[in-house]
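Person: At home tonight, work slowly through the protein below, taking as long as you need, and write a paragraph about the fold.
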Amino acid sequence: MTRIYIAGVIVLFALVLAVMALIAGQPVTALSLALAGVYCGLGVTLGVCQSISNPLFQAAAVVIGAIGLLAVFLYHRGFDVKLQEAHLAALSSFVKMDIYCKPMPMELRNIMLLGVNACATQDNANQMSATVELAKGLYFGPTLSIADSAYSAGNQPAKDGPLRGPPLNRSVRL
């Protein structure tokens, strides 16, 4: 009887995460989480040994993992072409500041250098993050995927990273 309660809690938890993904506009992620919850719930109900040796469970884990990988390709910032175009446009604008602002005060030069650095490196950071998410999809099973999604749900959504660049002139306060 305890197994059924634990399985129910796991399925309910996964469904809550799936609803959160739906609210965030990610239906493929929601499908993956819902299926992973059912998978884990059935695994707890049947027992770990029987679920691991069952070929149907192994096939279901592959399908759930494939849906999760598809969700990474669909929704991750590293694969968002419009975001990459926006970074390129911002980078171009920062680079052109040097042409249009002559003579350039030190404060403006610091802003330009920080902007160029941030825009030039953000797409690489997004792609590295996407690689990590894809690795999680490949190596985490449905159970760890639920745990990772719960951990990620508690974090803030990804934003462009902090500006890192050359040291600013100490007389300038931004």
Remarks:
- DSSP finds seven helices and no strands in the chain.
- The mean pLDDT is 84.
- The chain has one domain: 2-153.
- The first helix runs from residue 2 to 23.
